[in-house]
Amino acid sequence: MTENKQKPTRALLPLAALSGALAGLAALAVAEAVAGGVRPQAGPVVAVGGAAIDRTPAAVKDWAIRHFGTDDKLFLQLGILAVLALFALALGMVALRFRRTGAAGVLLFGVVGAVAATGRPDSTGIADALPSVAGGVVGAGVLYVLAGRLRPRAPAADAVAPPGAGWDRRGFVIAASAAAVGSAGAGLLGRSLSGAGGRDAVASRRNLVLPTPGSRARAVPKGAQLRVPGVSPFITPNGDFYRVDTALVVPKIDATTWRLRVHGQGVRRPLTLTFDDLLRRDLVERDITLTCVSNEVGGPYVGNARWIGVQLADLLAELGVKPPSEGGPADQLVARSVDGMTIGSPVEDLMDGRDALLAVGMNGEPLPFAHGFPVRMVVPGLYGFVSACKWIKDIELTTFDAYDPYWVKRGWARRAPIKTESRIDTPKPFARPRAGTVMVAGVAWAQHRGIDRVEVRVDDGPWQEARLAAEDTRDTWRQWSFPWQATKGGHTLTVRATDRTGALQTAKRAQTIPDGASGRHSVVVTVD
Description:
Blueprint: H1 13-38, H2 44-55, H3 58-68, H4 72-97, H5 99-118, H6 130-149, H7 169-197, H8 199-206, E1 259-264, E2 271-274, H9 275-279, E3 283-291, E4 302-311, H10 312-318, E5 332-337, E6 342-346, H11 347-350, E7 357-362, E8 365-366, E9 376-378, E10 392-398, E11 421-426, E12 436-445, E13 451-458, E14 464-465, E15 467-468, E16 478-486, E17 489-499, E18 522-527
Parallel strand pairs: 1-10
Antiparallel strand pairs: 1-2, 3-4, 4-7, 5-6, 5-10, 7-8, 7-9, 11-12, 12-16, 13-14, 13-17, 15-16, 17-18
């Protein structure tokens, strides 16, 4: 049977576009409902978004983080939905004349989603294709039916049909209404199933009581937190702690079923740990500042927290692992996350005596889901992309020559110690303080080395030493303040820090790629 290619009237094009939109909505709603039963990460928007992230050049990702911050994933998903909406509208208009072609176009998008889902590093197999395939089939069916209701029927021989006449109005309204109601129902079902899938994880976190660490962190010294309005709090609240990762859906893992496998070169006996196994080990509590490599000079992606966890070096040593300096064959530890992320850390750094942790707690409570519950890595002195694996499930000892982790494949450095940096928190850029004493204050960090001195310069004047707040440990940031005798007019304030090794924060500007930004933070203010 050949397809009817009778030329449609323009009057029906808006309804055809509506048909495409309803078909797209039905496809997404059914796909998300099925994903709720399979796993949320298998949904087409998440799968295609994840594939887009994996294939996006590092410079573009860095731009997105810089401009959209932690909302970069939201903007990506909104962008995907906008593109899908445009294509759905176009396919609806195509289907008005080429009914099968339009339906096939919707089905094709289902195939694209299925390929993206099964190609993700965290894919669990062919089941991940089901949401996109089901959505594509349903969406194609909806468009085929709706386009059929818009097909003009031949008028009687003696009738004069006005433009747009002859199509099945009643049938179209019924079919469109059914599609809309069905999509809404599928969407609600998907939301319910997705929520049910995470209930065990939520319950496992809610019911968790962290054991008292055998080695407690000392109380934060008096004077570590300056009483200067506008300066960052010494301990960053969990809700304000930065989050930069590639997960479009935050994994929710049931701690009672979580497992960690440790294996690889130099491991005398591979080990699989449960969460209870980890909690039965000696726990320590440490204050550690983390920094993201995407943090621009003066940027917000740095935070300080009190972590509870297991010393990673102790666990590795028990399994026979030795650092390269002691003859160990592995120089890289590759941590794998449940979302497919791979992060490589130097074994030498992890076993040099620093407090590298398998963390289970953050600021007195179990890790938040967004920050890695139930277990994540925390390593002072290394940027997060080479140390801070969240939702960790596997540790492999290997070499840098044998394996390139996720970010290294995308042009970032294999090794990335945190650079000595400082930031002005107050006054803010373009502030208009009054003439007189203006308190300039902020934070400086050089994890695992410590901050020795901070200096401030006004315009092109001499560098003047700022007052340092009390130091907690060398693994935490340090606040500073400088009483500036401000005079009227425009001024540029610049800050620099010196770490405990004597290294001065460089003035040379460098981008975040490949191993972190460098330069000196400055703000411009106008004194009234």
